[in-house]
Amino acid sequence: MTYETLTYDVRDAVAWITFNRPERFNAMSPLLVRELCDVATRCSSDKTVRAAVLTGAGDQAFCAGGDVSEFAKRLDDVDLLVKEMTTYLHAAVSRFAWMRAPLIGAVNGVAAGAGLSAVAFCDLVIAAETATFTSAYTQIGLTPDGSSTFFLSRILGPRRAMELYLTNRVLSAQEALDWGLVNRVVPADQVLTEAEALATTLAQGPTEAHGGVKKLLQTAATESLESQMERETRFIARAGASADGQEGIRAFLEKRRPTFSGT
Question: Could you give all domains of the chain from N- to C-terminal order, each with its CATH number?
Answer without folding.
Answer: 6-203 (3.90.226.10), 207-253 (1.10.12)
